[in-house]
From TrEMBL, chain A:
GO terms for cellular component: plasma membrane. It holds the Pfam family SurA_N_3. PROSITE patterns: PPIC_PPIASE_2 (PS50198). Belongs to the PpiD chaperone family. PANTHER family: PEPTIDYL-PROLYL CIS-TRANS ISOMERASE D, PERIPLASMIC CHAPERONE PPID. Gene3D superfamilies: 3.10.50.40, Porin chaperone SurA, peptide-binding domain (1.10.4030.10). Its main location: membrane. The keyword Disulfide bond does not apply. Residues 264-367 form the PpiC domain. The chain crosses the membrane at residues 12-32. Keywords: Cell inner membrane, Cell membrane, Chaperone, Isomerase, Membrane, Rotamase, Transmembrane, Transmembrane helix. It is a single-pass type II membrane protein. This is Periplasmic chaperone PpiD.
TrEMBL record, chain B:
It comes from Azoarcus indigens. Pfam families: TPR_21. The keyword Transmembrane helix applies. The keyword Transmembrane helix applies. This is Ancillary SecYEG translocon subunit. GO terms for cellular component: plasma membrane. Keywords: Cell membrane, Chaperone, Membrane, Transmembrane, Transmembrane helix. InterPro entries: SecYEG/CpoB_TPR, TPR-like_helical_dom_sf, YfgM. Residues 16-213 form the Ancillary SecYEG translocon subunit/Cell division coordinator CpoB TPR domain. Its main location: membrane.
């Protein structure tokens, strides 16, 4: 080996250089990963969070949101940078806690693991832990017990921290009381209004003010692009029109489904039963046979005695007392042998003994209701509609594909699709890009597609867009108007009103401000004060800015004066005349609720602060990958 | 390889000379490194064993807290502190136990365990947290000056906002509105404007600040 190096110094030097270069610049790691920074979204201390981990977590979170919202989530929300950031933060936090618990040698004993698993309701059967269920549940999740237990142990280690750092937080009564007292504090005020309308007459606009404003705010006086579209709709109704049902099919359906169109034959019968089990001995059978024969002989002599004899001799406890009567029944309701006999007898005929699993029956049919069937003419329309529906749902997929292909392949007109599928071309009114849909068909993607370059500039059909279950819509632009700046003359009066109102509001604020300053100096002023109102800090009855002004004012000296813009334009000066600080009793019913909320807030903040400490301790660097642009 | 050429014999004798000069040093260094490695392993093993045992006791505290049993929680946490004072679990056990002590009105018990965690606990961030909660217990007991003393110095890190907020509460109860105002304001500044998740705490502090008398 050394020999070889000595003899081929040049070669060896090259090899060494190749080896050294990556060491020198990237350290050993370059050999073990994809390269510097490749495939990771964050480093926490010395450990990395890979892009794959991040993607997995993001997908899980998206699925969870979709499930929670029942499948109706805004796609923009699912792909928002805020969600990605939150998912990454969460991963980093978990990693921080894992690192901390590893560094501090946190452990979870087998006993703790056991008792935690045993307490999970999903692993229990009638309130007790079941190993079978445990295995089955894990298998359903695609996990081995080892995987699950190590994951659970990790969760439990983190939970140990969450409990002691977060959840064990508490709050002194004094703090909660102070907050509740502040929330329920009341201030009595009067208002002195300076409405903008008062100063409107004084306002003089400079000659070029309107022009200047128009020039300075081009976007405000622009009408967005709009278009009129024509569109065709393929829906269940359209498909139904395309399918035909032949008379033969209808007739065949009618014959094949007679039971659906009427009542089958029913018979009323009575019987006398002599019980003999199916497994009876020859001896018993002979005895029963003799009994039946005797009864039958009596009946043949005097058939009118059927009811009396049944009452006296029948061994069917249900029917004997009713003279053997079984009421009306249709074919198939009785045991087979009985059924066959009952439906082959004539009315009032008395059968020979019939052997069934129960014993020997003597049967007499006492009434027959013939089968009734609704005539074909009456049910024909019903059948046609049903067959059409069936055929239409079978054909929808096929026609949908044809529809999509037609609008795509013959992209310069909707006519072919309309003609071949018998659809009507409809026309929309003007719509803007923000439109919810076309006509009755709601799907924002319709407008998006219509405003795309392909549609506006290349005059092509849009693709077929799904606008509901089994509804496809394709559209094309009929008339297009680009975004257009409205001419000054069209908006002049609008701008003028706006500027006048603004100037008047400024004047009102100026005048109000002067009065406010005077009042604060203790000088007397003129003006019509409103009646006294009582406000509570936690119950906003004024605009936010006014509430803030009134309740953040120092009340060391009363009356105190503050001012705020009025919601309807103009300015209002408030005089704070009195402050009521409620005396809270220790057992105030609201106090307990506020205290527990306050405690929860502090618990959350304590845990968060701890996480932030760990963030500094372990040095977190994140490089969130840019959102991948998805098509359409 | 039975016969060495001249060059190789030279190299071998040079090597021998070098070994005579430095052999002992090299042996010594290797021995020290080996000892250090064994010692490090041993220390890690020992810490792991200690933490494992402390973990079992911590679980006992956790279970007592789940059952709302202040007595058992205090005993288990006491054992934890007594036997494994160097572990993070001991400090966490004290914090966890103090919570249930406070809610059961056993303020002196809470105070004792928190005082230990604040002064002798292993982790500095948890020491600050214990100190904050100790001050809360003192506030509840009405020992306001003591509570204030415990809140000094205010830590620079993430617990700053909570310390200043609590200082504001205590000072306001003492009727020192001006000082309370300074404390609440410091809390607001520490929270800052950017953190969405701290918005509720910011609002709570703001409301208390605005309602100060005078």
């Amino acid at each position: 080996m050394f020999e070889a190096v000595r003899n081929n110094k040049r070669v060896a030097q090259v090899i060494l250089a190749v080896l050294i270069v990556p060491f020198a610049f990237f350290g050993m790691d370059a050999y073990f990963s994809d390269g510097p920074g490749g495939g990771e979204v964050a480093t926490v201390g010395k450990s990395r969070i890979t892009a794959a981990e991040f993607d997995q977590a993001l997908r899980t979170q998206q699925d969870r949101m979709r499930d929670a919202a029942g499948g109706q989530v805004d796609r923009a929300l699912l792909e928002s940078p805020a969600l990605r950031q939150a998912v990454l933060d969460n991963l980093v936090n978990q990693r921080l806690l894992a690192l901390y618990s590893a560094e501090k040698h946190f452990s979870v004993s087998a006993q703790q693991l056991q008792s935690t698993i045993a307490a999970v309701p999903a692993f229990q059967e009638s309130g007790k832990f079941s190993l079978g269920r445990y295995d089955a549940q894990l298998r359903a999740q695609g996990m081995t017990p080892e995987m699950f237990e190590s994951r659970l142990a990790q969760d439990l280690r983190i939970q140990q921290l969450a409990l002691s750092v977060g959840e064990s937080a508490f709050v002194a009564d004094g703090s909660a009381q102070r907050f509740l007292a502040a929330q329920t504090e009341e201030r009595e005020i009067r208002e002195l209004r300076f409405p903008a309308s008062r100063y409107l007459a004084e306002v003089k606009l400079a000659d070029n003010a309107v022009q200047a404003y128009y020039d300075a705010n081009p976007a405000r006086y622009e009408r967005p692009a709009r278009l009129k579209a024509e569109y065709v709709v393929l829906d269940a109704e359209a498909v139904r029109r395309r399918v035909s049902v032949s008379d033969d099919e209808v007739r065949a359906f009618y014959e094949g489904n007679q039971s659906r169109f009427g009542q089958p034959e029913e018979r009323k019968a009575r019987h006398i039963l002599i019980q003999v089990g199916a497994d009876a001995s020859a001896d018993e059978l002979a005895q029963a046979q003799a009994k039946v024969d005797a009864l039958l002989a009596r009946l043949r002599k005097d058939p009118k005695q059927f009811a009396a004899i049944a009452k006296e001799a029948s061994q069917d406890p249900g029917s004997a007392s009713r003279g053997g009567d079984l009421g009306f029944f249709s074919r198939g309701a009785m045991v087979k042998a009985f059924d066959d006999a009952a439906f082959s007898l004539k009315k009032d005929e008395i059968s020979e003994p019939v052997r069934s699993d129960f014993g020997f029956h003597i049967i007499q049919v006492t009434d027959i209701k013939a089968a009734t069937v609704r005539p074909f003419a009456e049910v024909k329309d019903e059948i046609v509609a049903e067959l059409r529906d069936q055929a239409a749902s079978r054909r929808y997929a096929e026609l949908a594909e044809q529809f999509s292909n037609l609008v795509y392949e013959q992209a310069d007109s909707l006519q072919p699709a309309a003609e071949q599928l018998g659809l009507q071309i409809r026309h929309s009114d003007w719509i803007e890009r923000s439109a919810e849909g076309l006509g009755d068909y709601r799907n924002p993607r319709l407008a998006e597609a219509l405003f795309s370059d392909d549609s506006v500039r290349n005059h092509r059909n849009t693709e077929a867009v799904e606008a509901g279950p089994n509804i496809l819509v394709a559209a094309r632009v009929q008339e297009y108007e680009a975004a257009r700046r409205l001419p000054l003359d069209e908006v002049r009066s609008q701008i003028e009103t706006h500027l006048r109102n603004e100037a008047a509001a400024a004047r009102a604020a100026e005048e109000g401000g002067k009065v406010l300053a005077a009042l604060q100096k203790g000088e007397a002023t003129e003006g019509q004060w409103s009646a006294t109102r009582k406000l509570q800090r936690a119950a906003p009855a004024l605009p936010a800015e006014a509430m803030k002004a009134v309740f953040s004012a120092s009340t060391a000296k009363l009356p105190a004066y503050v001012g705020a813009p009025a919601a309807e334009g103009g300015f209002i000066v408030y005089s704070i005349d009195a402050v009521h600080r409620p005396e809270l009793k220790k057992d105030d019913p609201n106090l307990a609720a506020v205290k527990s909320q306050y405690e929860r807030l502090m618990a959350e903040r304590d845990f968060y602060a701890f996480l932030a400490e760990l963030r500094q301790r372990y040095k977190v660097e994140t490089k969130l990958p840019a959102v991948q642009q998805t098509e359409n | 390889m039975a016969v060495y050429d001249l060059e190789e014999q030279e190299q071998i004798s040079a090597l021998k000379g070098w070994w005579e000069d430095y052999g002992n040093w090299v042996t010594g260094l290797i021995a020290v490194a080996a000892l250090a490695a064994v010692g490090w392993q041993g220390w890690q093993w020992y810490q792991g064993k200690q933490a494992g045992e402390a973990g079992v006791l911590y679980f006992a505290v956790q279970q007592a807290v789940e059952h709302d049993d202040a007595q058992k929680a205090r005993d288990a946490a006491g054992q934890l502190i007594g036997q494994y004072p160097g572990t993070t679990h001991a400090q966490m056990g004290a914090l966890l136990s103090a919570g249930v002590q406070f809610h059961k009105g056993e303020l002196d018990n809470a105070k004792a365990q928190l005082a230990w965690a604040a002064e002798k606990g292993a982790d500095p961030a948890l020491r600050d947290l214990a100190r904050l909660r100790l001050a809360t217990v003192l506030q509840q007991q009405g020992a306001l000056d003591e509570a204030l003393a415990r809140l000094q110095p205010v830590p620079a890190g993430q617990y700053k906002a909570r310390f200043e907020d609590l200082k504001g509460d205590v000072l306001a109860t003492q009727g020192k509105s001006a000082d309370a105002r300074v404390a609440y304001q410091a809390a607001m500044d520490a929270i800052g404007q950017d953190d969405e998740r701290a918005a509720t705490l910011r609002e709570v502090v703001r409301v208390k600040l605005e309602s100060l008398e005078g």
